[in-house]
Specification:
The chain is an alpha/beta fold. It has 2 domains: 15-160 and 286-355, 3-Layer(aba) Sandwich (D-Maltodextrin-Binding Protein, domain 2), CATH 3.40.190; 163-284 and 366-385, 3-Layer(aba) Sandwich (D-Maltodextrin-Binding Protein, domain 2). It contains 16 helices and 13 strands. The strands form 2 sheets. Strands 1, 2, 3, 4, 7, 8, 9, 10, 11, 12 and 13 form an 11-stranded mixed beta sheet that branches. Strands 5-6 form a two-stranded antiparallel ribbon. The radius of gyration is 22 Å and the shape is globular. Mean pLDDT is 90; it is low at 1-24 and 80-87. Residues 1-20 form the signal peptide. Its main location: periplasm. Keywords: Periplasm, Signal, Transport. It is found in: Periplasm.
Length: 386
């Protein structure tokens, strides 16, 4: 899955430049590799000012989550280039390994299973106690990366989004109705007018949801209408793509698209003819989480660095900072879902794509890791109907 493999825009201040050293080289250093635009620049200044101890802070953005996962792999298995007679030791560079990295929840199971990350322990922080249960459950895993209520905590969710329906107002005005739920994708008027994500979990999942089942259904054979529903949906779809699904919508080649909220929100601001809705029966959720690389350095300053990590994670979970993340990053902090909505800024209350109604959110689901046998069944079905 390459949700957020997209470039998230330019113009953001280089965070490693914003937060240069605020102390001497003898101070503990916190190195963070994060997804570009996933943290407001002003938040980093606020964190620096909140610290009671001197510390060196190095926050460096990457444009794609896939690049961050690749870095975890590289740090775990350093390149062996230069072995043998061609090796030149004196020019070999030791990689600088971050203490915290942004990772999408989709990659969490793989990162755990491959031992790319190590558990964290944020349960004593005030923020963890405010973190709603679905996000706590998301990061409790066993050593194979599967959900486990008694498992260790492998990440700290700091923002989330959803899969939404986005459509052209002009085309639907002529039809006399607007889409509100997944079942609308099967209406005859939309034949060959839809673009969807090229992702089996998303497309099979929304079809399961339309049939009254979970995105995380294990036994597909027990959903007798699934193949027929997918076959009918195929006739409605003009384009499968995970990175260009909005383009045909913008030029009117398709009338409706299924996409990720982080991609859709900027379009809603720039084109008033485009509208979006979170399906009323619930949708798929995703989360960005802070993880600790397994290869992170273990020095005599480990305790101080661990303290800085926990302070940063807890800082992101405080209500003021949670609001800033939600207002400025195209995604919502999980903390605000537990806050009184009437006390949220009006712009958040009015943004039902960024922050769906509580009833819709309760019906929505994270895409949990599947067993290998179940994952193969999904893939086989996808290849059959795709």
């Amino acid at each position: 899955m390459n949700r957020r493999s997209f470039l998230l825009g330019a113009g953001t201040l280089a965070m490693s430049q914003l937060l240069a050293s605020c102390g001497s080289s003898q101070n503990p250093a916190l190195r963070v590799k994060l997804l570009k635009n996933s943290i407001p620049a002003q938040l980093l200044n606020e964190f620096r000012q909140s610290l009671k101890q001197s510390a060196t802070l190095d926050f460096t953005p990457e444009t794609q989550l896939k690049e961050l996962f690749t870095r975890l792999e590289t740090w775990h298995k350093p390149s062996e280039t230069g072995k043998g007679w061609m090796r030149i030791p004196f020019i070999t560079k030791t990689p600088v390994i971050a203490d915290l990295v942004t990772l999408g929840d989709y990659w969490l199971a793989q990162a755990i299973e491959q031992k790319l990350i190590q558990p964290i322990e944020p349960t004593q922080t005030a923020g963890w106690k405010q973190l709603p249960r679905p996000w706590q459950e998301l990061v409790r895993r066993n050593a194979q990366g599967q959900l486990d209520a008694s498992g260790k905590i492998w990440g700290a969710p700091y923002r989330w989004g959803s899969t939404v329906i986005v459509y052209r107002r002009d085309k639907f005005k002529a039809l006399g109705w607007e889409p509100r739920d997944w079942q609308d994708l099967w209406r005859e008027e939309l034949r060959d007018r839809i673009s969807v994500l090229d992702q089996p979990r998303e497309v099979i999942g929304l079809t399961l949801k339309r049939l009254g089942h979970s995105y995380n259904t294990e036994n597909l054979d027990k959903v007798p209408d699934l193949k027929d529903a997918l076959a009918k949906l195929k006739g409605q779809i003009k384009l499968y793509s995970s990175d260009t699904y909005l383009e045909p919508l913008l030029i009117g080649d398709t009338w409706l698209a299924v996409g990720w909220s982080t991609d859709v929100l900027p379009v809603l601001k720039s084109d008033r003819n485009i509208a979006a809705v979170v399906p009323q029966s619930g949708t798929a959720l995703w989360a960005d989480v802070w993880v600790r690389p397994a290869a992170a350095s273990k020095s005599e300053d480990t305790a101080n660095i661990a303290s800085l990590q926990n302070q940063w994670i807890d800082f992101c979970w405080q209500q003021k900072q949670a609001l800033e993340i939600s207002l400025f990053t195209r995604a919502a902090s999980p903390i605000i879902t537990g806050m009184n909505r009437s006390e949220l800024p009006k712009s958040l209350q009015a943004n039902s794509v960024l922050l769906p109604d509580t009833q819709v959110l309760e019906k929505s689901e994270f895409l949990y890791p599947l067993s290998q046998s179940t994952a193969l069944k999904y893939l086989s079905l996808w290849q059959e109907i795709r």
